[in-house]
Amino acid sequence: SLESSCEPFMQGKSLRSKHQENNRLDQYALENPVAWTKPYTTSSGDTSRVFFTTLGHPYDFKNPSMRTLALNGILWALDKENDIPINGCDPTLASPYDPSNSGFGKKYKLGQKPILME
To answer: Which of 25, 47, 68, 118 could join 88 in a cystine, given CB atoms 3.0 to 4.6 angstroms apart?
Structure first.
């Protein structure tokens, strides 16, 4: 469960779970928050805003909605929510996006480096 200061705004539901088969849903719920915000205060009294999501597998970012969620969350955390368009940030990519699969085995690409934008 989230801390009381967190404000969840997106729920996710597991489509498959061995916990369901093993009657362990009392410990592992099928539905959980997947995106939330939280105010944060440092020990010196400075405040900030935190946007967090448990989504974010490289393949998730193939979906324009995921890119919009991330962009909107970043602007909100920077206290720039007035810069977010009514329909959300434009998720158009500057270059083709062909992510590698995360994990182990032969499904990921070796030697990948970030592309610097000029």
So the answer is: 68
User: Rounded to an integer, what distance in angstroms lies between the CA atom of residue 37 and that of residue 86?
Assistant: 19
User: Which residue, among 90, 87, 110, has the nearest Cα to 100 in the 3D structure?
Assistant: 110
State how far the Cα of 84 lies from the Cα of 97, in Å rounded to an integer.
23
The full DSSP string for 17-33 is -HHHHTT-TTTS-SEEE
Token pair belonging to 65: 């909605």
* 35 vs 55: CA distance, rounded Å: 8
The DSSP H or E segment spanning 75 is helix 64-77
Tens digits of residue pLDDT in 57-73: 889 999 999 999 999 99
Q: Both tokens of residue 21? A: 């088969």
Q: In which residue are the tokens 């597998």 written?
A: 57
DSSP state of 112: -
Query: CA 14 to CA 12: how far, in whole Å?
Result: 7
